[in-house]
Amino acid sequence: PGYGDSPPAEMVATVQGRVAFLDHVLQELGMRRPVLVSPSMSGRFALPFLLARGDQLAGFVPVAPVGTKDYTAEQYRRVQTPTLILYGDRDTSLGAQALQSLRHLPGHRVAVVLDAGHACYLDKPEDFHRALLGFLHQLK
């Protein structure tokens, strides 16, 4: 809500509102301990959710998300959610920037999709899915 062609939504104007919104979506879908895959702009929702309620997630897969610099290394260090940091090697701005912040997450892994840009899941879908599925298979 509030991005692309969707109408502005006051409920997601704050960090707390975005956490509550995502929590509501997961509850409505009946999801228990999902793996949250967060490409690009969805970082504005996923990162605050991870920091506030990461214990509700089985895993987190940020794909060059925005907003990583909004949080401190100490905030990231408190997260215990298994994480796969994924980005395309041709995404020299947001991918590298996100990695600098997200590398503070304990127990994270990094997967770089070769010859792929910011939307590495579109540029190299087989490589993206191979990395994602490998991570999912290793979760408890």
Automatic annotation (TrEMBL):
Keyword Cytoplasm listed: yes
Keywords per UniProt: Cytoplasm
SUPFAM superfamilies found in the cross-reference section: alpha/beta-Hydrolases
Gene Ontology cellular-component annotations: cytoplasm
Location in or out of the cell: Cytoplasm
PANTHER family: PROTEIN ABHD14A (PTHR46197:SF1), PROTEIN ABHD14B-LIKE (PTHR46197)
Protein's UniProt name: ABHEA protein
